[in-house]
Design goal:
The complex is a heterodimer of chains A (544) and B (91). In chain A, 76% of the residues lie in helices and 0% in strands. Chain A contains 22 helices and no strands. With 91 residues, chain B is mainly α. Chain B contains three helices and two strands; from the N terminus they run H-H-E-E-H. Chain B has a two-stranded antiparallel ribbon with strand order 1-2. In chain B, helix 1 runs antiparallel to helix 3. The longest helix of chain B has 34 residues. At the A-B interface, helix 5, helix 11 and helix 13 of A face helix 1, strand 1, strand 2 and helix 3 of B.
Chain lengths: 544, 91
């Protein structure tokens, strides 16, 4: 480790140093509240697309995905396939419309669209829950990086990394976060792709130069060693539907993803930045499958024992075994960059949400200067609090983040989607969706992850590998149904709220008949009922 | 067709395409197991593309390249539609 120590320190200090420098630079660009929260809505499509890449490819890609492939093979790949595709769902359903809404955050959008400061506060509460779940997994990853690099306990990595990211987010606001994420995106792409090519080459794969499809030659040998590697039928079909629902509506519901769209210049930039993002995220995710394949193949071929608890470190173990310390140091720096970018995005939304969507609602009339000062201190406090919270992290990073997606999708993704596409969606309907979506996903989370109960205690249908994921196939549809039914039963929204829908879609005039039809809500209700029923069909046919 | 209808239809079609290629393709592989796999207990893949099982390549290409292509088409078409609405030509 001595060679790694020196090189790794150099690379990591470079990443941390550049991140702080960009934060300082971002501070100089920040003149007012809009600059601090949304980078003055001046970010171009390419920069925003790259920023979204590093925001999306957190340590779950470097560490969590390979660990999940280790345990779940095809299931992990299906999970990431859905995650990649969900960006285009975000593109067609939400991104450009949210940009036109001229708010700063998802919570702000919910408050304005559903004409309710109370719902805005409720959305802040949900945001804090999902962002904390998302964040502690990533801060844990920073600890793993430092543990590997310096051989020191992960807690020191959590403290150093957590405080550095808190410092530059607090300092540079959204300008600092955006251009840091752009820089980190380039670092993590190179740091992931190049060592992966070296690993595939070292394993003797002839198409090593194109990792997404570069390991076909080893498939026969792999199937001999691990016959079920490519089997999709190890879970109930509803599992895949649940994963897709969680990804598609989770990404719309996770405020730190949505916040990126408030920073771009216009709806066109919102669209094209998503295209840049989905292409690069897809490239790296499909390459990550190659990394997972290489890991399972390497272990099966050599008989090297890796403890299950070390599954999150598979990328580093492979890089160290099959390349040299230069590449390992680069991978470590890439992983660090990945974690910093995601943590930065989360801190940004948590700080903004607490001041702009909570404190400013409770204490109206706050000046912009006062809000800016409060935001800076709040972000610093949230950063320190989350760093301390991450000292006792969850066992596996990705599982916690999957829960965050599910909870966000059911409780925030649904009201945001219907708020954009259905004029008849009311305040009461949104409240019902948020309550039903949150309770039907958060209570199972507490039972399964905190109380460590079997998912089958909740329902006998939640059986099989990662069976709890099917919770999402009930919580998201229930949230949709609650919102539609309650909206129909309550007084239509005021004209001002209905006008927002036309404005979000870019219409220069208002017409009552747009986005009012019964086709959308009826189709959604029918599909939701079918999805919920699908969980209960074919019970017992698929593995328990 | 009016711009409003075009927007709604394009969104619905793109949503369905992404749902199929990025989400429920695996459901097809599970329910249509016999199309892609041989008999139990081996369940050997019936065909391969660049050495990888066909269903797996479908998932990779579908959830990445096809979905990206859908995104490119949607972004391009909506740019045109937006310009038409701004010029007052779309109705």
């Amino acid at each position: 480790m001595s060679g790694l120590f020196g090189l790794g320190i150099i690379f990591c200090v470079l990443v941390l140093g550049i991140s702080v420098a960009v934060g300082v630079w971002g501070r100089r660009l920040t003149r007012n509240l809009a600059d601090y929260y949304v980078a003055g809505r001046s970010v171009d499509a390419l920069s925003n697309g790259l920023a979204m890449v590093s925001l999306s490819l957190s340590l779950t890609t470097f560490l969590g995905l390979t660990a999940l492939i280790w345990f779940g093979f095809y299931l992990a790949i299906a999970l990431y396939a859905a995650f990649t595709a969900s960006f285009v769902i975000m593109l067609v359903v939400a991104a450009p419309y949210l940009r036109r809404h001229k708010t700063f955050t998802s919570m702000d959008f919910i408050g304005e669209r559903f004409y309710s400061p109370r719902l805005r506060i409720a959305a802040v509460f949900i945001m804090l829950v999902v962002s904390t779940l998302y964040l502690i997994g990533n801060v844990k990853g920073i600890g793993i990086v430092f543990e590997l690099l310096l051989g020191i306990p992960a807690i020191w990595g959590v403290l150093i990394g957590g405080l550095v990211v808190t410092f530059y987010v607090t300092l540079g606001g959204m300008y600092g976060v955006t251009y840091n994420q752009t820089f980190q995106s380039i670092v993590l792409t190179v740091a992931f792709m190049v060592p992966l090519m070296m690993i595939l080459k070292a394993l003797g794969f002839s198409a090593w130069w194109f990792p997404p499809l570069g390991y076909g030659a080893a498939v026969p040998a792999m199937i001999q060693m691990t016959p079920h590697y490519f089997f999709p039928f190890v879970v109930h079909p509803a599992w895949y539907i649940a994963v897709f629902l969680g990804s598609a509506f989770g990404i719309i519901g996770l405020p730190h993803f949505v916040m990126r769209y408030f920073t771009v210049r216009d709806a066109k930039d919102a669209r094209w930045s998503t295209v840049v993002c989905v292409f690069l995220v897809g490239l790296i995710n499909t390459s990550a499958y190659a990394m997972g394949f290489a890991g399972v193949y390497y272990v099966a071929r050599t008989g090297v024992a890796i403890a299950p608890v070390d599954a999150d470190k598979l990328v580093f173990i492979l890089t160290q075994a099959l390349t040299n310390n230069w590449w390992l140091a680069l991978t470590v720096a890439g992983a660090l960059a990945a974690s910093l970018s995601t943590v930065a995005g989360l801190l940004m939304i948590m700080g903004t949400g607490l001041v702009h969507d909570l404190y400013a609602v409770v204490r109206p009339g706050l000046s912009d200067d006062r809000k800016l000062t409060l935001s800076i201190w709040t972000m610093a406090a949230v950063g320190v609090a989350c760093t301390l919270l991450s000292i006792r992290p969850p066992q596996f990073i990705l599982v916690t983040i999957m829960w965050a997606f599910g909870i966000a999708g059911a409780s925030l993704g649904v009201p945001i989607t219907l708020g954009i596409w259905w004029k008849r969606a009311t305040r009461e309907g949104a409240a019902a969706a948020m309550i039903v979506g949150f309770l039907t996903s958060f209570i199972p989370y507490v039972m399964i992850e905190i109380q460590k109960l079997s998912p089958m205690v909740i329902s006998r249908f939640f059986y099989g590998p990662l069976g709890w994921v099917k919770v999402i196939a009930w919580s998201v549809p229930l949230s949709f149904m609650a919102m539609i039914v309650v909206s129909w039963l309550t007084k239509p929204p005021p004209l001002e709220a209905r006008q927002q829908v036309d404005a979000m879609h870019g219409w220069p005039d208002y017409r009552e008949e747009r986005y009012q039809g019964k086709g959308l809500p009826i189709t959604v209700i029918v599909l939701c009922a079918l999805i919920m029923l699908s969980v209960t069909t074919l019970y017992g046919v698929f593995p328990k | 067709m009016s711009a409003y209808r075009r927007e709604c239809w394009l969104t619905a079609i793109c949503f369905i395409l992404v749902t199929v290629f990025g989400g429920i393709l695996s459901v097809v592989f599970v329910l249509g197991k016999d199309l892609f796999f041989g008999p139990e207990p081996v369940y050997a893949a019936k065909s391969h593309v660049v050495g990888l099982p066909t269903h797996y390549v479908f998932l990779l290409v579908g959830s990445w390249l096809i979905v990206t292509a859908v995104g490119v088409f949607y972004a391009w078409y909506m740019d045109r539609l937006e310009r038409a609405v701004e010029r007052g030509e779309a109705g």
